[in-house]
């Protein structure tokens, strides 16, 4: 990997570069045994730093230009409600997570993003002062450490996201903001275009979508955000970090409504070839910060970097262990496997589930 | 985790204990960016020891009682043919892999198994002397390190497996041997029952099946092995390390014949609940060494340990981050997710693929 | 079957009665060997009257209150273009079809509807005079015979349908008009609500949807028509004669775009239980003329009559050979078949296709 | 249709001709409103002769060389048990059915086969004398009319079928005998090869399989029968009349065990193109009497005749309304439909079900 002195996130985006984001932490660490589903809190940053560090490294190696701190749901109110982390404070987790992200980011040319997410307090109180105090506390933890910018992510209500942006903006660093909403808009019915306008007016430098729905749906939503900004005469960079799962039947509330959530989503996982298509469509839509959320593993992030290798001019380190479009199968001993060492094969393949008694679509809980 | 002084593999099996095996290395490390598909060689043990160490740890934490050395395809003839590892010798990989396995095994109560697998030499030459020399060389690498027993695995021909067993037996440690065959028998048509007899007569203490086919198919094959042994008046322990993928349409050659192999197998991945069923059926069949191969991640291994917790008397460390049968969903904010916090829900669920344009079964390449 | 002197279609609908329509002719007679797919012309009325008569009888026996003349595509311009019927004139077919419909209608209490459908002339010329002359000629054929009312059906453009209505209205009998459009509107983009308004203003007494899309989609479109009429302060009866096939992925152009059209639609055929649901939803939407189009066989029409038996006060003749909701299975020799003699079983059943290598959804040709 | 003086069934088969059988009566007449599912008795021959006559005609027109009398389950013991036909005797039905079959057969060059099927008496009593008396009575009804040969069909036990053959043989006409068994053998475990031998030794001139399982499975079973005959040094003609449904998951008891039986089998219906494949495979297996059973409609029978047109030298009458392999779509107005006017398109098509919430395979009741 060629080392470059890291330039800032806005410097890169302003220069028209593609920034590859990292993938999903909580679901992957749940499978590895370090996060408890249902709680989804990030105490592993303190309890098992080696596991978090290794996952950061995989994303870095796969091409990620940003390492997000593993601080999802790490506000004091959420940690208390979940009751899952009795002996560790939010501040301890936030600080440990910053150290881990920084350590790994420095192994490459990556930036560290300090991340905040939606709070139980917002839904309970709608009290701007209280909610903002929570974001302020988490931001202060981050500012004790060396981070490069902030991301406010996983917000169902643009109002709360805008509050987060207003707080983070006081930290003196660039701010990205992503909502986990569908093309229909946020939970209060605010359409994506208007959501984008509100976030930019609150101070966000980068806006977009993360989690809850599959990549192609999220691209559609970001396009609506972009159109809203253009109509309002505003400018901002666009980012996207969608699910790594197919969710064609999902409505407004996303994959939480699927019967398979969260313990039987395997069948819905995207292949690396699905990600190629996603990366191309996101790029064509003008999005330049392209990553993933739940379900995105290292090989999915590598697929983003490989799909956009021509535009970016280089491949990620992990591509040394990957023949593009299956090229490494050329030397397989079985002729029928060798026949799969080409792009057309994988692009056209419709993968079978091996589950003839399962349906292909489910009834979401909110239908 | 309660520490016990590790007892030997035969000591445990003779006492009627359930030994939980580890999961699959090469496919998981391929996804993490450290193994090249098509080659599948284990140079990561030297190049990226932190990645191999972390995967060992995940399996240990999930309940594995055995850590297999990451030495798949690590015979000199295979390394040379694959051409993927120009600057590292097989001996270097074997020794590094032993060190990694030992380091992690010592963090728990686990044993280290030194593993050999099928050689290109066998298919090319059928020369017993040459093939045995290859196994001898790899065994000698292992014997420089502290390992607990040997496993000869992933053999399509019982003849080659028996040669491996004969060599490993000279190492003075217990030997397990698994074939990657279907209920129809090995590639020369030797039925499973006769395969088992040959392996035991060659000196194997534990015999069974690994890789190539899904868990329930592999259980069927081990049952045939068991019946063959009983008919011959022989005794041996039984082991199983099947795929973590659904392969109902596969014939003799297993998942290599599937159109999805190796880059679009996501849809076929087993859920943790599929593994519960598998662990129970394996146990009921009298198999006491129960693990996984390609497709088995840490959470699948944990599912084996959780399904057999009553028989074994304890849960694995990683269960501290897992509510049994979804129990941790009880406190979810969405009522429809809370409704999933019970065994019946997950046992009955038929997961949808979210891919309405994909079939449920494929045409294997050998059909 | 109790004979009643037939009352007129408007008399019935004005009294709030449910009028059961008949099913599809051309596709069923294609399967029986009397209609040529691709041409879909109705020369069988002359060539094989016994086949048309028998199909009329099946629908009558299944509960149909209306027998449509088998005169689909029977305009002179269409017959000429299709080139399928060299020695028979349109007038001969129209007259023979009227006789057949009348003969069978008189065996019950049914009415005869003389039917016209879209013309090639409209698309070629958009010439109102020419197109109207074609409808006038076909109407004159009908008026030589004793028919009860007219139906203008299978129109993709509301403009052409309105012209047909204007002509038929001069015949001095009630006129029904159905479009084969989606909820998005007609081929010129006129939304369903406005289509309904135009048809009623042209003189239609009954308006609705037929063919091209599955029942639940067609119910949605009729609801939009109803809403349009209400908004315009207009009144009309509503009718529906949808496909008997599942077409969830179809867009504007309907089932013609499906890869399975017209020779592999079997898998998409509705069960009788699907029709129960449809009949209930159509009824709940305020539709009172409820029948079917392509894919609706006699047992589907019977299912409409059986679902609405309570509202109508009687069962159709063919119900003497049908246990409601499978009741006749009670005396089956196999216990597992007896267990199917109840409503809940059939309502909940998700029928398998027995085709594990086929997808569940297709890519329509216009996507 | 070219008229030839009908030659006998054995004369035709001995000359190496392909004899096309007719399709299924009871299921088709159930859908048309004349047969009651669960009872499946043939009183329609008396009650609604026009409906039976028309279905005979469709099969004749589609190419059938044999018209089977509509006398399924028409033994006195079965009629009494079913309780469905209080005022009509078995003799009345048998005689009416012979008249209908003869009337239609004479419209073409077809033969009439008088058909008997399994009796409740056999299962209840296993009394050879009583069972044979039942067959004798039905045969005597047939012999009052002009029929050409007998078929004993739908037998689950070869013993009962052999008794039927022994009785029918005394009628002085050729006898065909078909079992509704799987490749595993009859309900007493007698394998297909031995079944064939017993039937031929009992006097059958033609032996084979009908109903219960899909065409390709039935071809496999007939092959086993053929092999059994060859091994025993016996000769007989082979016949086959399988289901027109896909039943890949069925075991011994056939489609009765499917959850979809009998009211939701639509999704499993074969396309005409499936039948082409079946007809070819049956022909290649040496079977020369090729027809269908439940699920076979006229267009399926036509597909047999069209697939074997080159071997037979002529097309059936109904082919005048059918472009071979979709040829008549060449003049369709939509370009994407025109693109379907060729064999390759239909041969390769994997039809979608339009039912994304349904599985592709079911769990049979006997699994």
From TrEMBL, chains A, B, C, D:
Keyword Glycosyltransferase: no
Subunit: Homotetramer.
Chain residues that bind Zn(2+): 211, 293-294
Keywords, ordered alphabetically: Metal-binding, Methyltransferase, Transferase, Zinc
Cofactor note: Binds 1 zinc ion per subunit.
Pfam families listed in its UniProt record: S-methyl_trans (PF02574)
A GO cellular component annotation in the UniProt record: cytosol
Annotated pathway: Amino-acid biosynthesis; L-methionine biosynthesis via de novo pathway; L-methionine from L-homocysteine (BhmT route): step 1/1
Gene3D superfamilies in the record: Homocysteine-binding-like domain
Highest taxon, organism lineage: Eukaryota
Record's function text: Involved in the regulation of homocysteine metabolism.
Cofactor(s) of this protein: Zn(2+)
One of the GO BP terms on file: L-methionine salvage
Chain ranges of the Hcy-binding domain: 7-308
Protein's UniProt name: Hcy-binding domain-containing protein
Signal peptide location: none
PROSITE patterns in the record: HCY
GO molecular function, one term: zinc ion binding
């Amino acid at each position: 990997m060629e080392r470059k002195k890291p330039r800032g996130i806005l410097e890169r985006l302003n220069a028209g570069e593609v920034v590859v984001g990292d993938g999903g932490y909580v679901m992957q660490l749940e499978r590895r045994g370090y996060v408890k589903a249902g709680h989804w809190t990030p105490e592993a940053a303190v309890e098992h730093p080696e596991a978090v560090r290794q996952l950061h490294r995989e994303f870095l190696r796969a091409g990620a230009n940003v390492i997000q701190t593993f601080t999802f749901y790490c506000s004091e109110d959420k940690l208390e409600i979940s009751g899952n982390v009795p002996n560790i404070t939010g501040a301890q987790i936030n600080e440990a997570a910053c150290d881990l992200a920084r350590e790994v980011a420095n192994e490459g040319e990556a930036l560290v993003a300090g991340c905040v997410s939606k709070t139980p307090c917002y839904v309970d109180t709608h009290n701007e002062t209280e909610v903002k105090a929570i974001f302020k506390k988490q931001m202060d933890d981050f500012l004790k450490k060396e981070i490069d910018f902030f991301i406010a992510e996983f917000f169902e209500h643009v109002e709360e996201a805008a509050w987060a942006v207003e707080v983070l903006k006081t930290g003196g660093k660039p701010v990205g903001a992503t909502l986990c909403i569908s093309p229909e808009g946020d939970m209060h019915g605010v359409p994506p275009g208007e959501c984008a306008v509100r976030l930019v007016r609150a101070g966000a430098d980068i806006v977009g979508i993360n989690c809850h729905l599959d990549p192609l749906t999220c691209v559609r939503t970001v396009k609506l955000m972009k159109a809203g900004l253009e109509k309002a005469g505003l400018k901002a960079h666009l980012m996207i970090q969608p699910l790594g799962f197919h969710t064609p039947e999902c409505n407004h509330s996303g994959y939480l409504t699927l019967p398979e959530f969260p313990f039987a989503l395997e069948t819905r996982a995207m292949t690396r070839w699905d990600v190629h298509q996603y990366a191309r469509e996101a790029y064509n839509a003008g999005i330049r910060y392209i990553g993933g959320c739940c379900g995105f593993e290292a090989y999915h992030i590598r697929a983003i970097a490989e799909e956009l290798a021509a535009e970016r001019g280089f491949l990620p380190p992990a591509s040394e262990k990957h023949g593009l479009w299956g090229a490494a199968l050329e030397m397989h001993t079985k002729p029928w496997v060798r026949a799969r060492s080409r792009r057309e094969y994988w692009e056209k393949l419709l993968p079978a589930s091996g589950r003839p008694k399962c349906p292909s679509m489910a009834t979401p809980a909110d239908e």
